[in-house]
Amino acid sequence: MKRLLKWIGGALAVLLLAAFGVLCYMAGSPRDAYGMVRYALPHMHRGTLRVGSDAPDARLLALDGTTRFHIRERLGARPLVLVFGSFT
Amino acid sequence: MGDIVQIYNDYKDHADFLTVYVREAHPTDEWQMKSNVKDDICYAQPKTLEQRVAIAQDFTKHYKFPLPFGIDDMGNAADGAYAAWPERLYVIDETGHVAYRGGMGPFNYKPAEVRDWLAAKYGAVKHEAPAAAAASSTANPTTPAAASASAPDKATAPTQASSTK
Questions:
Q1: Is residue B19 part of a domain?
Q2: B12 part of a folded domain
Q3: How far is A9 from chain B (nearest CA, A)?
Q4: ipTM for the predicted complex
Q5: Which domain holds residue B60?
Q6: Any alpha helices (H) in chain B, and if so which ranges?
Q7: What is the total count of domains within chain A?
Q8: Taking a contact as any Cβ pair under 8 Å apart, which residues of chain A between 32 and 71 contact chain B?
Q9: Contact of B93 with B118, CB cutoff 8 Å
Q10: CA pseudo-torsion sign A75, A78, A82, A83
Q11: Looking at the 3D structure of chain B, how many domains does it have?
Q12: Is A82 contained in some domain?
């Protein structure tokens, strides 16, 4: 029984190492693999919006740092392409 | 970034565009990327709205970014509403409904899909291939690359138009 548990533990360790190796390969480095698990994976399936959903509104700040406006104000006679992102 | 700017230049007479700056994807105090260090794009995650505005201003200056621009608040309301972080694309139609929902970036961030959506509605905009353009100013135009087959949600393509802008 003890021997079987050792084998199972060893197999699990090998599987975990292999999974981490694959993740490192996909992400580019161990540091990026950690970043992917820590920061990206929790966001993978966020959000309930689907095609056909009402576009949610949010208040934004203009680049001047003082003027505020709503996404809804930009909706109208033409389609609106929304581009979300950051500098880094 | 260049793809989006090109799409904006091609379709700004037909559609409105709005860039929404959300919290940093790879700040120095979280998951910093080597490529950002190499390019000297190094920012900590902003703790105040003023810091966020400053980075957004640096971004627009750095890229001479022409698209209309808005900044998410520190409560990340826009990010929460659109599941936007780290980067994502949407098209909202004239009735205020989501017509195209892109996948989560960077792997599923596909400007070509937005271009396809706009092209289906307003017609494709053709560009000369760089080599052909260098060889001759009258070279044959090429069509922008088609989107990947592993597409996220897409609305039924608008039906009109095959004319070239």
A1: yes
A2: yes
A3: 31
A4: 0.76
A5: 2-115
A6: 2-11, 34-38, 49-63, 77-82, 111-122, 130-135
A7: 1
A8: 32, 34-35, 38-40, 43-44, 46-47, 49-63, 65, 69, 71
A9: no
A10: negative
A11: 1
A12: no
